[in-house]
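Ticket opened by: R.M.
Priority: normal
Category: complex prediction / small molecule

The reporter submitted a protein together with manganese (II) ion and asked that the result be attached to this ticket for the collaborator who will pick it up next week. Submitted input follows.
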Amino acid sequence: MQTIIPPSPPVLLPIKGSLVGFPVRRVYCVGRNYAAHAIEMGHDPDREPPFFFQKNPDNLLVSGDGFPYPPRTADVHHEVELVVALKSGGADIPVEQALDCVYGYGVGIDFTRRDLQAEAKKAGKPWAAAKAFEHSAPVSEIVPVEVVGHPANGNIWLKVNGEQRQQGDLDQMIWKIPEVISELSRLFTLAPGDVIMTGTPSGVGPVVRGDAVTCGVDGVAALAVTVR
Ligand code: MN
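Result attached by the on-call engineer:
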């Protein structure tokens, strides 16, 4: 069937060492997956089931044009996160088979309109406006598993204008990557092209226009974004 309006182009993430792109289907995010961040946000870090929210595929920012400061907020926070890109999926994936679904890994920032999120939390309302806004998730190139393996530990960090703001280790994740994939697949049918942002370590804080944000997961990927 022809389309009445032009269909949206697929969102493609660059792949390290390749000219072809990784086509994104859905973007899932994990909340409070590092104890130190749960504590800084006023929550108990005990191991409760992970919870999830989503961003839209076209919220991913893959160009080098910088992150445009979004409207209707005065408190945008950075959250550096390990990004997992899936090549296969399914429902009710056992933990032991979950890593077989992974195509590769990258690093990204879950930019958050913290003031809108605080209002939403207080009112028991959804987080969509706080999380799923335009360009809210800058991401690096995806590094295939054949190159990077399955990182279970490693330094994850973010700097603003060269100053360290966030620092943690992947081994501090409350829910490890196989567990995140397995839990997600009990709620949603996962599929090739799904991307998971796996939560942020402590040290989240505001950015302002002009800030130079750099972040990375050592041994996996790095990313540089200017707030404009
Ligand atoms: Mn986050």
